[in-house]
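Give me structure tokens for this 712-residue protein.
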Amino acid sequence: MSKDKRALSVGIAALALLAVNTSTLAQELTRSNLETVVVTATREARTAQELPESVQVFDQETIDAVSPSHPSEILNRAAGVHVNNLGGEGHMTSIRQPISTRGVYLYLEDGIPIRPTGFFNHNSLYEVNVPQSGVIEVTKGPGSALYGSDAIGGLINSLTRTPPEKTQVKLNLEAGSDQWQRGLLSFGTRQGAHSAVVNFNTTRNDSFREDGDYARDSLTARWDYQSGDRLQVKTLLSYTNVDQSGVSSLEYSDYKNNTDRNRFHGDTAFRDVNAMRLSSEFSWQLNDQQLLTLTPYYRDNTTSMSPSWMVTYDPNVRESQFQSYGLLSKYRVKGSDSVQWIVGIDLDYTPSQYQEEAVNYSLEGDVYTGFTSLKDNVTTFDNYNFDAEQTSVSPYVHLEIDLSDRLLASFGVRYDHFIIDYHDNLSASISERVFVPQLGRPVTHNRAEDQTVRFSEWSPKLGLVYQFSEDHVAYFNARHGFSIPSVGTLFRSGSTRNTDELEPISADSLELGVKGEAASWLRYEIAVYQMNIEDDIISVVNGFERNVFNAGETQHRGIEISLNGKLTHEWLYAVAFSKTDQKYDSFSYTCCFPSQNIDVSGNDIGKAPETIANVSLAYAPSAIEGLRLEIEWEHLSEYYTDETNTAEYDGHDLMNLRASYRVNSELEFYGRVQNLTDELYSTYTSNQVGDDDISYRPGAPRSVYVGVRYTF
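Here you go.
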């Protein structure tokens, strides 16, 4: 019997014996999946049956029931989605793509990208207050014409909580393993035409790894104003501070026997993030046929860090800053009963600053204990110090036509134009090579000359939705997506020459799906897709150097299945399953020491699990009102650890248990056990081509959390 079949048998057997509360609550299951409201696609509420795309929606009740301590705990319940845990709230994402740090996802808050194009960070969901979100929407595959760069693998949109109908205070206190402490406080009120809600999140955790402590403080404040029937204003302020210690990967012996070991102590691999966003959405209902929406916004983000992945070959500390001034505009007009237009233009101006200094790390055995500056009174050891001003102008048009009572067609196109003005602040006399005592050799930092880089990209979109009965629809979409190189990739060249000549990643996607409700016990969505990607941007270690370049073509195809239903008035279930086939079509590069050409055409893509599954079964006994129990099975299949397909990670299966008891409308107690069976597993397993040493990121052992919610 194969590993996947054995894992499936174990999961089904366990679920047959245990009772749980599924990720979709009974309240949600009383209505059809087709009636689920989705905001992301057109930046306003639409029902799922109108959209030619696969979207998973988690509402506030679901988020509260899961009480995620990490974004993965809620997002991994969506079919085809895997978010791993790198410590604290660090993560990589896999949606129709391998597990990686690549900028092929768009993260949003209330429809506004939390970072500008060109400043993607794979960890940046930690800049969103996930446990206090009102709704989380996960769109799989490229987005509609309303979205541009980075929306290739998918979009994750966190929607803030709406203010309550009356004055209300909510307090949520939680404690758990490894000194986990979290306090969530929410205050909301409504006074006439004005309503507001303010959410605070303070979290502390020592981690199960040595010196892996993590802290965050977040504020999300929302003010709504409604003037008559025509004007609505929503103002949103978000602020997050993340202070996170880095944790190292481990080689096999430590992974098996000393999973709490961490080779990064002290300030090694630290990360300090301050992210602030301010926006106001003005919506004017001009008449029954026309809606104008203008959303000006501002971002201010500073990240100071010592990158953990560079400690062994290019040790440095860096600070990156950007401020954004932008406007999202949308004009929706209903031309007739069967035609609707959405046109708009998105504008963004982001000045940024980047400064990096070479440092020397201290070692005790193989443990890094901290760093010292290489600067003295005469010599500077700045690797980089540059400014980059990015301006983007992105007009788009989206057209929907009712071709018949059953068939809806949508057509869209977006044009994105980016101008990046780069200026090197370092004197040409400063050497591009720095001798690092820790390494016993110099490190190269190529610097580009002052210049202006431009990218322009058209993104056509096509969608069809056919309603073949009241409760069932089929859809098809064909979409082009792209992702421009980040500012850091373009101008923080390292040992790679001419990174300023990199091309955008390009993706073409086809998707066919069905969704609906067969009965109260079966609500479903099934999607099959194929995506071809060209000019992927990859990073390869070559001896003592890391090189970045565009390389080859890849193919990604798969099937995603979402099922949920109400078996009886007490029993509920949910299934999320995906199977993918991801291969290198034409893919070769030069790497390693001594230098050699690596051709992996036809191989499976590294770090791309073939199957991902999440299954839950719920029991809410009518004999004990207010009690809910949950068991959840998470499955990740084996995957190759590099491009050559010579080594693989075996995959893992995790069980999670949740229970809650609502005493009354004001008071609720709850608890959860993550990794119930205390499974040894790795959240990310990899090796460099030409290096037989496989690195493991151990996942947390069995962890217990308890909490209380009280509403005043």
